[in-house]
């Protein structure tokens, strides 16, 4: 179903950076009913897929000097490129421009210093590419109710959105959901490797691991039950699953590893934000 909020957006949306995440967002906007004539894309290396959207009315690399301030700018460039890119984009930002950033480790203060505007800092994750992402966002104090609503609609086009009031939570958010898909992919990778060690052909082990992780994720998505209950439902006392969980939940086990992993990612996010 088309998102009526997207359909009702009347201002110009400038997307700075149309890589994997920025491109996924743009695809979601257009699928959700946003008028392509409202969208401009600035990216020095536009993919053929994004270039094809020009036929629908999306403006590609317009003359930013002649364009003047835009209503909403979504910044999806690589964080290490932002200081240079942001300086070029600043002419498009007025005090009334909403600047929505999806760059990891880039603080509201940094965005205000380099770009200006009313800043929303957001952290999506890669399942956004298939409309199943989860994004956490935090707004600066000068973001209006209407600006927050537009930002919410743009972010929600690729999945669900949670808003927080404390920006310091964003480092842990990045560690859990931003980086989280990599942990799940590693689980599939290592589950397949363990299957091979147990004697399965590699192709079969890979297929079993991928489908098991994907199917379990979909069950978790559709079920209202806690993940612990779903786990318990698979586990018969004294059975094969219980034997494996005895290893994974032992000492040291998966819980300790995950706590250490999230702590390491959170610390690195804090370092990158400085």
UniProtKB/TrEMBL annotation:
EC number: 1.5.1.2
Coiled-coil ranges (or none): none
Major location category of this protein: cytoplasm
Keyword Endoplasmic reticulum: no
Keyword Calcium in record: no
Entry keywords, A to Z: Amino-acid biosynthesis, Cytoplasm, NADP, Oxidoreductase, Proline biosynthesis
InterPro entries: 6-PGluconate_DH-like_C_sf, NAD(P)-bd_dom_sf, P5C_Rdtase_cat_N, P5CR_dimer, Pyrroline-COOH_reductase
Pfam entry (one): F420_oxidored
GO molecular function, one term: pyrroline-5-carboxylate reductase activity
UniProt xrefs under Gene3D superfamilies: NAD(P)-binding Rossmann-like Domain (3.40.50.720), ProC C-terminal domain-like (1.10.3730.10)
UniProt domain Pyrroline-5-carboxylate reductase catalytic N-terminal: residue ranges: 16-105
Role played: Catalyzes the reduction of 1-pyrroline-5-carboxylate (PCA) to L-proline.
UniProt family annotation: Belongs to the pyrroline-5-carboxylate reductase family.
Name recorded for this polypeptide: Pyrroline-5-carboxylate reductase
UniProt source species: Bradyrhizobium campsiandrae
Source species taxonomy: Bacteria, Pseudomonadati, Pseudomonadota, Alphaproteobacteria, Hyphomicrobiales
